[in-house]
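CORE FACILITY INTAKE
Project code: CF-77B
Contact: R.S. (postdoc)
Sample description: multi-component assembly, two entities in total
Requested service: structural model of the whole complex
Turnaround: standard
Below are the sequence entries exactly as provided by the requester. Do not edit them.
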Amino acid sequence: MPRSDTLQGAMTRWVRHGGAGKLLFTTPLLIVFGLFAWWPILRSLVLSFQRTNLVADPAWVGLRNFSRVLADPLLVTAAWNTAWFTLLALVIGFPVPVLLAVFIGELRRTRTITSVLVYIPIIIPPVVAVLLWKQLYDPSEHGLLNTVAGWAGLGPFPWLQSAETAMPSIVVQATWAGFGTTTIIYVAALMSVPPELYEAAELDGAGVLRRVWHITLPQLRSVILLMLILQVIGTFQVFTEPYVMTGGGPDNSTITLLMLIFKYAFVVGDFGKATALSLMLAVFLTALSAVYLRATREWKPS
Amino acid sequence: MNERGILSTGERRQPVTRVVFTGLIAAVLACLAIVAAGPILWLAKSAVSTSQDILRDPFGWWPSGIRWGNLAEAWNGMDIGRALANTVYIAAGNWFFGLLVALTGGYSLAILRPRYAGAVSAAVMATLFIPGVVSLVSLYLTVIDVPGLGANLINSYWAVWLPAAAHAFNVLLVKNFFAELPKEVFEAAKVDGANSFDVFWRIVLPMSRPIIAVVSLLTLVSAWKEFLWPLLVLPSPDLQPLSVVLYKISATAETSTLIAAMFIAVILPLVFFLLFQKQFLRSAGRAGAVKG
């Protein structure tokens, strides 16, 4: 006799087929992502059109949060600083891990010790690393880096105390803290380069540099391109380094977009304005990655 | 290792290549030792130096003698002991909840595969591509007043543990690992009458040790590094981890005490890394393989 398709029947069958067990195993993920990932993302969209200050009830204000962000003279400074940080981090920090990884890939007996050295900065908590470098950047002639510069007859440099050198100094510290992660990832990616390619190149009489240029780098292409955009997305959201190192100074020369968001939200208590700027930055970064992914897909390796 | 790299075994044996390559290795190792390990060694030396020596003679070997007292001053006077305990507590919670969500979620999405698995996977992956900045402020407002619960998690470690567990990358790592386990084993167990809990406990978990190690290391390291989020949600000084406490005291503390406190903050992760270096390097590589 066919069972009547009542709600109860459907439930029984669902449980018997393991539906309840499946749901139970998915529940921790659903709760945690629902409350602390998906809901905040959706809520940002609402918040950016509201006035929220935790005192009065939220009120709809249309695009006013966005126009108030755009009217802030600090926005241009912060946007420029952030772009400058990102560019410097690319120029200083991007080539080093690639070259280092190609080198580590060739090592045999010294490979472990080299990898361990490369990994050490990754282990150091960012606040400690920044405070440590702040000490190294001591502007007096007795400062550690100024002592080293003094051996070469240079300096003393003001490092963090001058608007020109503060940002590059922060970038050097950030590069120090970050190069290990990328290097280790490239080293892992190098394992998948087929040795026959090098074999063939060697038979063709290609030297070491030409093998790196024509085989290693093209083989790493997709990882390199991905790390590039991930680095840009990451550096555009830089906060801890400038916040701890200089607090945005001197003269706002190191204030970044995320520090501005932090200031709006947690110093001033203007959550709507903070969310509006967050959303603008996120949309910009998403658009940038979309354009980037499309552009790089077109240059297929020949 | 007998597979060739860029250089072939024959080339490695040639005297000229050998000399050049060995020289290059020595130079790079020396540079790395100075650049990567140098600052940490200096930190260790300065942790037991006087402020005067640190500021006046950074390269001197304790011209005014070794000052072990710095460490005690930092530990007691700056409450670094409590901050260290808080950091361990935060890391332990992040580890537990991160692993719980990644393992159960990965099991459901890769092996149980309910009908909604595709949609949930897509929603989890979407959070990987949306820049984190979007949710900083709204996450803070969520934690102040958790929807449905009406709870305020400020000054509670739940405010750190739960958002950290919503880590799409860990779910992805575990899900990919589970997807490659042999399906026949689960099918056979099912035929023998095992339910999804038995399969999870007796079959999947014992096979997951490598991925548990990877996720554990990644979670513990990132928990130790957290700064901005605990700064926001743990305003009470009694609850703050090392990162926040070090930042707070950095403006006013005596240089020697601050440096000693920083040294205490790095010892544990450093020793842990040196003990488990193989696992660390492997997990970093595996993390990269997923990104690639």
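Facility notes:
- The first strand of chain A starts at residue 50 and ends at 51.
- Chain A has a mean pLDDT of 89.
Invoice: internal transfer
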